[in-house]
């Protein structure tokens, strides 16, 4: 694996075009914190697979367009070379494309919407980084969440963009306990795998395995925490009596998965104390997912990865109490 | 009083268990900014009284469980010794327990919810402290408000937790002027006393007198500003035509009481200028209480002390214009 | 023009009263970033005109009362002399008065509401400045927006203040495409001019010309970016299929106009790169206006200039990537 990476990095040195491809692949890899073009490629294939078999190629294509626009915008804005090369200006844009492909209907204006929002993630990323620099905490996917929420909310005000895939705005009501039926064991496993793919807005078991491969090639610990986080999330959500269909569809678990990976294998030096802390944070993220499902209901938008961002910020800000990775 | 405190502090030096009790009592005292175990004990008795006579012992018991979990979590996270000894890692957790006892139905999961949320207040406190350290302003009860809101909102998504005491989610409509009838003088006095106890989520006249005693033993100025703040809040709320039942129940006044104590007797050096400033801030907090009642209505949750936090931050952030206490 | 200004500044040196008038005129000028008493006077006349011809003199009078209260409060709080002299403690209060005149019914309590909120903008301004000082970005009209939102929301809870001009709280629903009919050319021009006056909450063509004159006497570039921003905003809003009546009334364009002026002619050193950046930010502000229209709908309040504040912060925070003006 290392030899393959060295060979690719050698090729990139000699070609501006390959370097640009490399930035974008690493940008896709950074959706799950992996600064590795092979991880990015596997993620890209996973999403492509999930996207085409579900008859929605615009998800994968939107992601590709947006990540390219994001990287070009970052170059035009003359961002720091190290961040650009690590893909830090690509992952938020990539998620924008996946999101608009998933929730918005295709139209000529859709392409402009994808490109504009992809570009906007870059100043938003720079702005949040400026705000957060004194606190030693990363922006995570906050630029994606904020930008996407604004563009999705605006679809209700604009008739040239069709929010055909968005949830209906709804009043806040308590869950019907019948919706939290106990599940078959098979559903439990499906929920775990789909919790991993929903990080990329897809519910596909094949894609889950490709995503785990993409994690494992760069960081076996990240892959382990992804699976562990998904198990904890699905078990916690069932214990709390969340809606079974949401859990099995991966929709209660994708943010906890990101929290588990971020705290357990990326930002802190792994160890027993950190694992316990990551466990509590992962359980807490399930609660935050439930809470934000309620908060966004009247506005007709999805939570995206906001529960991950919020819960992880709370657990990353006291960073002086743990050794950093 | 001073002799009693010295005797207790002497005892604590010799016993880890008594020191732990001391941390927790000071944590309860910090709900109204008093770093004094006797204040904490009187507050604890006041809440216990209000809780048992109203047939809801789970309020006092929840508070006790949560403050202990909060203190233990702080020790596990190796927080600063001075903050721990001053009870700064206990008051947010204590309020969590009172809140869940008040708004949520008892069940096995309730205990886990109390303990988990109590523990989560500690990283949230550390995180907010990290963010605020450059601005010279305290986190106040923000860790409690944010954590409690998330756990309360999530009850709508989870069938294993019953939000039986939560307000119904409601559309925003203007108040019926008939609800703002002029009141009898007796109601006015009841409103003042209950504005003080609602700081601890209880409406009880006996508890109010115990709370004032708890303030007075450590800071007569704090007790005076609590009463003065309550008078100003009740008078302002009536003048603005707020709902009489809310005012008499103390629900328009508890945040203004905290603002009055915080600005008038805790964070700034007392004086005429500071008193005028605290008066304006207290009146403003009544407006913020009205505003946030409207904001939370569609989400079916109470404001908790968010009006105090928001208004006091606005009036504490320009701290360089006043001498600090 | 320069001679006139020098003569006035000479007069002000000799008279505390004229200096006070000067602070307030500059405060009005700062609504569109102009530290110039003549700009402020022209803005004041424009608003007075729009206010009286529409039969709502309370708009202009409320603005006058509030800006005076704001300046007096700033003096009482001993703010920095340079900021006071530049009108930086006046513009938020002035906008409060215009807003309350526009949305709230007259009553004795209305005057207290205007004065209290005008005073509150000053600590809020100081507080936000304290928070933002490390990031090198201005508070813009955020103190106005936050203070006004709180006071407007509270009118639903208070029967002594009548929110007669506020929008009804409404569920979030998608726009009816029929509301986005193509427009006559005349409507297009009206929309451009009213986008400029709606910065001051007025829809008046005469006022627009006076406002542009007020900009031009201090900064021809600001006037040019205001017109250019309005053209871009109206064209973008139509292309996205926003509601025609909103666009023609100037309600989709006033925040983008402020963004265009702030980015193109105030905070960055003008140039081609900055102009492109300001263009993207202006288009983005139209999307944010659409989004925030949806967000505020359930709460029955207007967006005010929040879309400008939010979008401009995102595009001003990465300031190290452009030369500052």
CATH architecture descriptor name of the largest domain in chain A: Orthogonal Bundle
Structural class of chain A: mainly alpha
Largest interface: A-B, 39 and 33 residues
Q: Which word captures the global form of chain A? A: globular
Helix content bin of chain A = 55-70%
What is the CATH class name of the largest domain in chain A?
Answer: Mainly Alpha
- Oligomeric grouping of the chains: homotrimer
CATH level-3 fold name of the largest domain in chain A: Ammonium transporter fold
The biggest beta sheet of chain A is recorded as:
none
Superfamily (CATH H level) name of the largest domain in chain A: Ammonium transporter AmtB like domains
Strand content of chain A: under 5%
Descriptive overview:
3 copies of one chain form a homotrimer. Chain A is mainly alpha-helical. Chain A folds into 2 domains: 2-154, Ammonium transporter fold, CATH 1.10.3430.10; 177-321, Ammonium transporter fold (Orthogonal Bundle). Chain A is built from 15 helices and no strands. The longest helix of chain A has 25 residues, at 108-132. Chain A is globular, with a radius of gyration of 19 Å. The two termini of chain A are 22 Å apart. Chains in contact: A-B, A-C, B-C. The B-C interface holds B 134-135, 171-177, 179-180, 239-243, 280-281, 283-284, 287-295, 298, 313-321 and C 77-79, 109, 116, 119-120, 123-124, 126-128, 130-131, 134, 149-161, 163, 169, 298-300.
């Amino acid at each position: 694996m290392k030899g393959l990476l060295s060979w690719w990095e050698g090729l990139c040195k000699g070609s501006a075009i390959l370097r640009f491809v490399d930035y974008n692949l690493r940008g896709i890899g950074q959706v799950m914190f992996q600064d590795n073009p092979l991880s990015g490629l596997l993620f890209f294939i996973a999403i492509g697979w999930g996207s085409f078999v579900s008859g929605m190629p615009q998800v994968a294509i939107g992601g590709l367009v947006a990540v390219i626009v994001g990287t070009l915008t970052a170059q035009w804005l003359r961002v720091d070379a190290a961040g650009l090369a690590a893909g830090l200006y690509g992952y938020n844009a990539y998620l924008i494309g996946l999101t608009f492909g998933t929730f918005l209907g295709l139209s000529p204006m859709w392409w402009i919407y994808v490109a504009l929002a992809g570009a906007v993630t870059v100043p938003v990323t720079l702005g949040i980084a400026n705000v957060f620099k004194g606190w030693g905490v990363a922006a995570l996917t906050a630029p994606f969440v904020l930008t996407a929420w604004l563009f999705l909310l605006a679809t209700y005000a604009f008739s040239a963009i069709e929010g055909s895939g968005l949830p209906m705005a709804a009043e806040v009501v308590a869950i019907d306990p019948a919706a939290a039926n106990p599940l078959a064991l098979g559903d439990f496993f499906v929920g775990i795998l789909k919790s991993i793919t929903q990080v990329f807005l897809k519910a596909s078991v094949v894609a889950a395995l490709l995503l785990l491969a993409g994690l494992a090639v760069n960081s076996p610990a990240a892959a382990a925490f992804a699976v562990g986080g998904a198990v904890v999330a699905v078990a916690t959500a069932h214990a709390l009596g969340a809606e079974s269909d949401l859990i099995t569809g991966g929709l209660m678990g994708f943010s906890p998965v990101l929290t588990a990976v971020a705290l357990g294998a990326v930002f802190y030096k792994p160890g027993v104390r950190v694992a316990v802390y990551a466990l509590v944070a992962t359980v807490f993220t399930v609660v935050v997912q439930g809470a934000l499902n309620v908060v966004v209901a009247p506005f007709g938008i999805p939570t995206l990865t906001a529960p991950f961002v919020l819960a992880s910020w709370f657990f990353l800000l006291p960073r002086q109490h743990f050794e950093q990775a």
